[in-house]
Specification:
The protein is of the alpha+beta class. The chain is built from 13 helices and eight strands.
Length: 324
């Protein structure tokens, strides 16, 4: 460790001194299968720890790009005694896209596609290609509302709309609706794969929302609904995440009313909030928040039966959600 400190000092004072240019090193694709998970998480944790020391080299900025699920998996699988996750917050910048940025991105991609495939000098915009309204909402607002405010989601939805309108001059509201049915299934599947390494039974957790309205209070979830969905966990012989383990615990204890199942529902809803498909009211202003807005932390103990809950529109078609 002493030798390492000397190397860092040498790099800072002699190699990357104040008279030279600034350097940026970007590390990406850490979620790819470049190593077995048993060692990959340890290597990524070591990388994060190394960057903390290398900050002394002021002319070099090292940036790691990774998804939230990978970061959580790293901390979950390398947690040791005395570990405090909040001490790492100063090193994180959580990327968020505004609606205006997403609209600009879509317009640029549509214009490029038209110029590339049809007319090199043509200028196209979403407004020219799509009908103005879908369910009384501006088209792009409708599309973005069914994403997790990520470019990939918007692009996948737009591509499905274009596919549905093959051979037509414009994309209609009906095309958007048809595309949404395909898109919703694809994005839920993608979200499941995204979190599978941390929550192996995430698909079973998502299925709990099937049959519920788009908006409700925690206390409105019926005893019959909880009971029926808890029975789905009996097919899991060896639960591997905390929600499935909680379900097995409730099944062994037994319960007679919806209130008896509140602790399971709270644990489940905290997870569904974290992965982005459930919004929960914040006690300070009673507004519904989704994790995509900045990951306001909830813990199961803080979710009461009076909390208001909203299912993300991304899942409406997949779950056949009744909109309120």
């Amino acid at each position: 460790m002493q030798d390492l400190q000397e190397v860092i000092k040498l790099l800072s004072e002699e190699v990357f001194d104040d008279s030279g240019p600034d350097y940026y090193l970007l590390i990406d694709d850490l979620d790819r299968g470049w190593a077995d998970d048993r060692i990959r998480y340890k290597l990524v944790r070591a990388l994060i720890e190394s960057i903390k020391r290398l900050r002394r080299i002021r002319k070099v900025k090292i940036l790691i790009s990774m998804r939230t699920d990978l970061l959580e998996a790293v901390f979950s699988n390398t947690r040791d005694s005395g570990f405090q996750e909040d001490k790492y917050e100063d090193y994180f910048v959580r990327l968020k896209w505004s609606n205006d940025e997403l609209r600009d991105l879509v317009n640029k991609r549509v214009s490029f596609m038209v110029r590339d495939k049809y007319q090199p000098t043509a200028e196209a915009s979403v407004r020219k290609l799509f009908d103005a309204k879908v369910d009384k909402n501006p088209m792009l607002k409708y599309i973005i509302s069914r994403t997790l405010n990520r470019p990939r989601d918007v692009i996948v939805f737009i591509n499905e709309c274009i596919q549905q309108a093959s051979g037509q001059e414009k994309i209609t509201a009906e095309n958007v609706k048809s595309a949404e049915a395909i898109y919703s299934k694809k994005r839920v599947d993608a979200l499941t794969q995204e979190w599978l390494s941390i929550y192996p039974h995430v698909n079973t957790h998502i299925e709990f929302l099937r049959g519920l309205p788009s908006k409700f209070k925690v206390k409105d979830v019926s005893f019959e609904h909880i009971q029926a969905n808890l029975l789905n966990y009996t097919a899991i012989s060896s639960p591997q995440d905390h929600v499935a383990k909680k379900a097995h615990e409730k099944l062994s204890e037994g319960f007679k009313t919806a209130n008896d199942g509140l602790d399971f529902v709270s644990v489940l809803f905290e997870l569904l909030y974290k992965i982005g498909i459930l919004g929960i009211s914040q006690p300070l202003d009673n507004r519904i928040y989704f994790s995509e807005e900045g990951l306001i932390p909830f813990n199961p103990e803080s979710i009461s039966k009076d909390h208001r809950v909203t299912i993300h529109p991304l899942t409406f078609q997949y779950l056949s959600t009744r909109k309120l």
